[in-house]
Amino acid sequence: MSQASPPASPASPASPISPNVPSLPSSPHVPRAPLAPLTHEDPQEVGGFRLLARLGSGGMGTVYLARSAGGRTVALKTVHTRIAADTAVRTRFRLEADAARIIGDRYGARVFGSDALAATPWLAAEYLIGPQLDEAVRTGGPLPEPGVRSLGADLARALGLLHRSDVVHRDLKPSNIMITAAGPKVIDFGIARALGDERLTRIGAVAGTPAYMSPEQAGGLEHTPAGDVFALAGVLVFAASGHAPFGGGQAADLLYRVRYAEPDLSGVPVGLAPLLARCLDKDPARRPTTDELAQMLAPGDGLFEDGLPQPVLADIARRSALVWAEPPHRLPPPAAEPGATGVSRRTLLTLGAAAVGGAALAGGGLWAWRANRAQDGSPDARTPLQPAPTPLWTRDIARAKEGAEPMSVGGLLFAVAGITAVGIDPRTGALRQDYRITRTWRVATDGTALYALREPDAPAPAALEVLLLPLESGKEPSPVVKLPAFDGTHVLNQLLCVDGGTAYLLAKSAAGETWFLVAANLRSGRELWRRPAPTPDEAFVTRDVPAVVRGMPVKGGLLLCRRADAGDTLALSLHDTAGGATRWQKSLPVPGAVPHRLAADEDHVYLGTATLQAVRLSDGAPAWSFGKDREQVKNLYGQRRYGIPTVRDGVVYAVEGVAGIVAVDARSGTERWTEPPVQDATPNGDIAPVVSASHVYTMDSTGIRAVDIRTHRPVWRYETQADTLASDPGATRLYARDMTRLHAFRID
Q1: Of residues 171, 253, 601, 603, which has the active-site annotation?
Q2: Which residue in 642, 637, 631, 683 sits closest to 660, CA to CA?
Q3: Could you report the per-residue pLDDT of 482-533, keeping only the tens digit for each?
Q4: CA distance 671 to 693
Q5: Is 264 a catalytic residue?
Q6: Alpha carbon of 733 to those of 155, 337, 690: distances in Å?
Q7: What's the predicted TM-score (pTM) here?
Q8: Are 617 and 559 in contact (CB under 8 A)?
């Protein structure tokens, strides 16, 4: 648990509580106490511990300096009351305490008590004295090789304790390591979890820190002990050189480099570089275990502090002396200004100071205040944001996968959730149906019925079968198509789409390794035609994405969009629905992150790459390209400037770099309007906007943003870390899905 860390900044989104505690200034002559006063709203005691001061506060909770009746001084972490009712948050808090106990006081902070079931969940642990690793490097520079080796060996042993208990840390980074006189201590287990447990992958936040994620974690795959080894190697690169192995910048850029770029080992001692390069191998199987790593790093005789620079040792000594200083007096309730209504400016400033120099305020109020100020800090004429709507309902749901947007089917809402497809009443959120569906690419709908491929391991004939999933409770799925010429046991068989009584599939031949694009009649259950198709890449199944990204019926035929097996290329083709003949095909360069979804209307298919572009459905020729010469502060999606588009009523909407929404005429490709630059958030172009008659709903790094089509400005935001946005066919309800929940909102 962190107790004496850098000056307050917004809590990390990767952890339920990231206490941000003021550090000592760099000048040894002007020490500052690392404590902030209690506010009038803080309790007198929690769990039998008397609160003395605040150590930090974030979006999920607060950390206090506290003392037991027997005089033991502890760091006491609590969860905010407003989120304590969430069962998942309490479970995560309990797991954090369990992980801290596993590490123990040799490599972490000793736990003296905790209660995840209390009205205010709390955890009391040893008060560690020292800077976090990132602060230590800023204070004394990179560590010498013996110090890095000692640090790495101890951290590898600490992770080994977790791994032997089937727990992974998942967020090891310099700010989660305390440098104390007794050695390095691993802290903040807020997103640690048991191996194989997918239920608590994330509680409203990104699981992990992009600069230190493993490639598999960055790709949304299972984070194993090998992922912790990768993160540890990144930490040691930072300790030895002062920089992260994959640089800095926007999260999307970092994730791309983590998955595909070689690490930057400049500044790492020659004796360490080969070992750290092995730990940073993209293949988890080629990385050493924690035991092997500790043995290869283990230093000779000597104490850990012998490898620390003198400024860091002096910093630890100053912090130790200041802990026993008289705690600051509790702040009185803020006084309202005469004649003021609501919260006064003076009150806001008082509360901001009490939050340890800028810790994140909960909710959307701070964002709304900032968003309505000009970039020079002066107020402008923007209308203040309205309160975000309250969800109509929220349903617990398992982890979403790419392309797993909820589907409206015959009055129900279906979503692929983990290994099932669940049917939900869109009015109440009540669960109506539950079918075993392990892959998103094996289910499709025409809006009136739901179809799925029989699971490859189901006790059934080896023929490929398409099942009709009944919407009524208590009824079993029934086969409507049976194709004995195709291998029904192959997991990459895909149900592309269903349209006009025809199911379109990508399927492997039962007689060999040849793959086909197949059409089957849903009424007769028979094959209509087949055409040879490229063999899908087996690697896609490990990443939970199909080889064919989308198959969609459009004017003139069946449009297929396929990822290239290698390189930054997207293959588009249009096929005749009568016999499968290819009407046209083309390959489009898509540098950076490949979009997983397209948009189409009667005339064009639209996609976002380095430009926002339209391709004619009639012949595959380019119709227009928008944005090549526009000034842009930064590209967000690797090298891809424009996000996944949505088209409605003759207008194409897409996220433009880090700026916000741009609206473009669908016929001419000319600009209709552009949203003012987004403040204090990063737009997310990998989630297609949802467009109603009056608003564009889009995601950024802090939540859903509603943009008024008439004024082109945001009108409200709802804080969430949703992975998908979707609406019902009439665009009267908005569905936002994060890793654990599905929310429904009424929209217009």
Answers
A1: 171
A2: 683
A3: 999 999 888 888 999 999 999 999 999 998 889 999 999 999 999 999 999 8
A4: 19
A5: no
A6: 48, 42, 10
A7: 0.53
A8: yes
